[in-house]
Amino acid sequence: MSPPSLTRVVRGGLWLYLRDIANNLSGFIYWMAISTIGGIEIVGLTSSTVALAHVVSSFLSLGEAAGLRGFVGVCKGREDKEGVANYFWSTTLFRIATFVPVGLVMIVLGLLGLSFG
User: Fold this and answer.
1) CA 69 to CA 67: how far, in whole Å?
2) Is the Cβ–Cβ distance between 84 and 76 less than 8 Å?
3) Fewest CB atoms less than 10 Å from the CB: which of 50, 70, 80, 115?
4) Helices (H) and strands (E) in the chain, counts
């Protein structure tokens, strides 16, 4: 297997860069629309809720996304389809086992009227 050419690497990097620009631009438009519709208080509450959700999900994931990319890449390079499937399903089951119970606890706490604010 020959290494990718510099042109392919640059082209792939350009598409990733354009995707990030589009993502950031759409996020900017979203937050501007939310601030226009709801005001500064809504933006503050929404952004703190999003940040809290990100912190909880990052803490619970234990870095499995980065590990999954690395191990799946190695298995794919070796053309080991069984290894790819094993890593995919073990990560999926891990996410289900961690995120579903925590999500249910957060829903129950919200329905009980408990607030972290």
Assistant:
1) 5
2) yes
3) 115
4) 4, 0
CB within 8 Å of 72: residues ≥ 6 apart: 84, 87, 88
* Per-residue pLDDT tens over the stretch 27-79: 999 889 988 998 888 888 888 888 888 888 788 777 777 777 888 888 888 88
Q: Is residue 34 within 8 Å of residue 42, measured between CB atoms?
A: yes
CA 35 – CA 28 distance, rounded (Å): 11
Between CA 61 and CA 20 the distance in angstroms is 23
